[in-house]
Protein 1
Amino acid sequence: MAPTCKRRVSGKALANGSVGVIYQVFENVAEKYDVMNDSMSLGIHRVWKDILVHKMNPSPGTLLVDVAGGTGDIAFRFLNYVRSVRERQLQQKLRHHQNLSWQEISKSYQEEKSNPLGDSQVVVCDINKEMLKAGKKRAQHLGYSEGLSWVLGNAEELPFDDDKFDVYTIAFGIRNVTRIDLALQEAYRVLKPGGRFLCLEFSHVSNPLLSRLYDLYSFQVIPVLGEVIAGDWKSYQYLVESIRRFPPQEELKAMIEDAGFLKVDYQNLNSGIVAIHSGFKL
Amino acid sequence: MLRGAAVRAALLRAVRGAPGRAGLGRAVPRAEEEEEEEEERQRGGRVPLYPGHIPTTPLQKALLAAGSACAALWDPYRHDMVAVLGETTGCLALPKLRDRMRNDPEGYRILQERPRIRLSTLDMARLGGLPDGTLGREYIRFLEDNKVSPDTRMPAKFVDDEELAYVIQRYREVHDLMHTLLGMPTNMLGEVVVKWFEAVQTGLPMCVLGAAFGPVRLNARKLQVLATELLPWAVRSGRNASCVLNVYYEQRWEQSVESLREEIGIFPPPAVCV
């Protein structure tokens, strides 16, 4: 059976503007997105995403918007994190109450069952229907239902009110936005005062030896992996090139500051292959 | 189909939209084209030579060959991987095939005229109306019985010569006609027999690998039939036959399959149920 026919990135799409072209790239890759991420990064992308959520350190009751969150990686990690924090909270509460009656103990179990997330919520927003579809399927498969919602939206023009969210994350998504400054402005708008902006993205490696190895791997191996696993050389060639064109750490930091964020900082992971930028709306 | 360079340029322009980089001299189109070509050269080493061509470095070809071999073994229905394997390993066999075509008058004409076998170029109704036993009628019967279409063949992507890309394309499009001439269906056993024939005929490493590894997935009974009857016949026919790519099939739809077999040198197929 021949692989499902993927729409080639066509001249007509080009005429509609670059957003359409990038849309088709992700429409093509949506199905195999997670498999490709694991193969290309040898599974390390999972560690990067874990570090992002640990840095976020969300407490129960946090309202998160994960933009370009497609297949739900950050959202699921967020839900796991707040669930375990909540469990620990309830356990701590129990420990401080000595001499509990059976009624009180069963009430606390009920509390845990009825509100395991502590009112935390995550909204996954993505411009691409296929990616959202893949994400919803994954959520169902993994058993995530509470505290999770899926919204179709454009990072440059979010369908949310002002001052709504506690945390805004964008993991490996801002690179694909045409007007990064607009996306940053929207991030500022939808965050509550005191809210945090977190961006996980490929960045620049300054170490020359590592940079050469990284380039070699990126240009020689990744398109091959794309062709062999997903039958799509061009999309993964695009991926590698878009990483090279993306602003380096300091430049992105300046752009985030321009949008109005304060206490902007970045943390390099793996010598700059990936960086987490953080800023606050104060 | 849009050329790779133009697509990439558009995507890069989109990503470059960040404020700090806006002033990179977009005013001169020619300079931009040169910049794109320079990028292309840095990347794969060459500029695309035909629509759908993806230039690759030797390292990329080696990785592709290994990866596609594994993928094809893992999932034999990944026809695209079999195709990629053929393209990346055919650098020695394809020029030889092309030379054989050049040295034959009919093959030479095929190289000049570049006929393509696809639904848009075939008159399916006319071919279906031909008498039984003719190449055209039997080809249509084969397509219908096995529910295949000539349009599912992958275009060549990784061959770095425009003429050789056509040769491998022709080989792929003629594959269904091989099934018809050899009388083999598209099940695993039939495909293995055709691969053995093609391996002897073309010498393409992909055919050789397919012929060697294909039988792994057959049960004992089929293996026996393969080894005792079908294989010896396929190999003998392959050796005896003239180059199958030198036949202008599009001009021989009315010819009977038997006479075409005799002309090429394919022995009549053994009477076994495949």
Protein 2
Amino acid sequence: MPSTICVSCRGERSAALVRPKTSEPYCKICFFQAFEREIHETIVKEQLFKPGETIAIAASGGKDSTVLAYVLKLLNERHSYGLNLVLLSIDEGITGYRDDSLETVKRNQQQYDLPLIILTYKELYGWSMDEIVKAVGRKNNCTFCGVFRRQALDRGAMKLSVNKIATGHNADDIAETILMNILRGDIARLKRCTSIITGDESDDNEVSVIPRCKPLKYAYEKEIVLYAFYKRLDYFSTECIYSPNAYRGNIRTYIKDLERLRPSSIIDIIHSGEQLIVKPTTKLPVQRICERCSYCSSMPICKACLLIEGLNKGIPKLGIGKTERYRKEMQQKQDQCCNDQSLCHCMKEKLTVTEQN
Amino acid sequence: MCQVNEEDDEIFQALKSTINKTPTNRKCMSCGEDACVIVRIADPMCRKCFEEFFIHKFRSTLSKSNIFGRGEHVLIAYSGGPSSTALLHLIAEGLSVNARRRLQFQAHVAFIDESSLYPDAIDMREKVIDRITNQLHYPLHIVSIDDNLDNDNTLKELLFQQTKSLTAREELIRRRKLKLLFDIAIREKCTKLITGDNCTKLAAQILSDMAQGKGAHVAIECNLTDTTNDLVTIVRPFREIMSKEIAMYNRLNSIESLQNIDISTMSGIQSSIFKLSETLVNDLQRQFPSTVSTIFRTSDKLEKNLKSERCDLCCYPLDLDEDQSLLSDQDRIKLIHQLFDTRSNSNDPVHVCYACRRLLRDVQPNLQSNQE
């Protein structure tokens, strides 16, 4: 029978939970302190923020972003980081999932007293996720959502003139991403995915990308759930209805099994990922600018423009799978998707923002 | 799906839907004869072409980098399993007098006898002797896994009573075997050690190593020639050959492998990290046939770190700083000196890499002590 004394305060309070990261018994107070302290140490050690910066917290209403918003606000006050915090939310247009979680974000805005901005796929790209899934089917839709969301966050952040974006990626997410990149053979992403802050290196990038950081990089998903539960934080906990067939599911199961065998596996995978060095002779994509929308891209036309083109022309597989043929066709054809009536995001003036303040 | 190189999987998915239920006579892709086996994604081959393909792959891997010097002494690690049996067979053919571009090294064979750990595997020693000495006539070096230890029960006790998890047991045995193979090679003045690690096993090993914190060594463990040890270079000629191809080759040539029991035989698929990884790789490979080769290709693009200090437990380069890798627990230091690093002075400081440090946490060197 394991001891029921909290290992941190050694008996001042009786243990209420077993900490997933270390498998040791903790009382609630000490767990909160340990959890918050570790995030603070990550922020300080990796020098994520500078005083006076405006940080956009990517808020989805889920547990990770809710806990991130709560903890960042708390640490900002407790340790005087001197940051201005803003909530930035993206509405992909998934009925029964996103509309509910957005209500949660609006409540968070009230509860944490932070300004909130919401952007929708429909106004940015002309397509909502429900419409995309109808056109593409159930298998490759996560690609669309992920590519669009990344650009949406950047566009929202640029509009608001923030200095950095903070996302709620936790240790489990990063471990999954590392393994996924190995299984996909994506050596370029493998190199970047363990960085806690990306887009900060100002080498010869012509396009300034807004840096994004992951303060929760070393926090276990289970601990985030426990923290949110004990603190009675308001979050939305249903899985996206389109995700069950995703490839990532296989790896997620594997990691959950690993965690059951050896709880430190998740941090061990992150350590492994950080040790990987890519051969300098490997061919890596070069960053340039999309010819259509001037966003950063590794190809002449960025992935988002490619995907939209495919959707608008009725060939939804355009950005997925063999692209050589289609890309050649496209470069020869006239620009057919962007006319005055369309809401394609190439039309920059059409960017409307729903401000809630 | 979700692969950077998706063409292979698309071909596979397309084929799956067009093939009807009745058996079809596929023709060999090279010569048009009736096919007997499907290689890689969807390439049918007849027996002759398959064997040529297989043997050619093996020989070209070996001769591509001019690895072996004339008359060099080479140690072949034999475990009795299908890969090492196929390896022996191919090497025997390559060394035979009428072989095309005959191999020019001197072969020795090493076998590590683990029968003290598994009571069911008693006959292995005799079978191996029969096969190697009587049939192939190569010098055979058999070493027991508890070679040079105080008494025969030290290792057994360590593994079954002091080690908490199957993962840790597997890893300890793996490191111990490698150490013993190096010792034999050095003793017999062999400068190369050939192992039968195939692509499928290496892919599972990569994932398993990532899960244990051994990411720094993934780049080294998949190399054709591995120069971690200064005196003995490891060579892996089967690194691009799948286990299915080896099984087919063995079957076509009626090559029988010996039953090989190891520590995780008959334990469930969730019993150790390696087993979990192996299951994942096999399951994914069934749905996406390019999985194993993609994992392998990814690891091939990685570079090893150039630290010169080695871990005293696994002999690979350290991935931690000096102060973090230093081991302070006296019992564990003694353990390492006894089992893994018998040559150095017992007063030298002991350094271990991240994965070995994690491994040691699962081992209680002293039964009485309760601390980690």
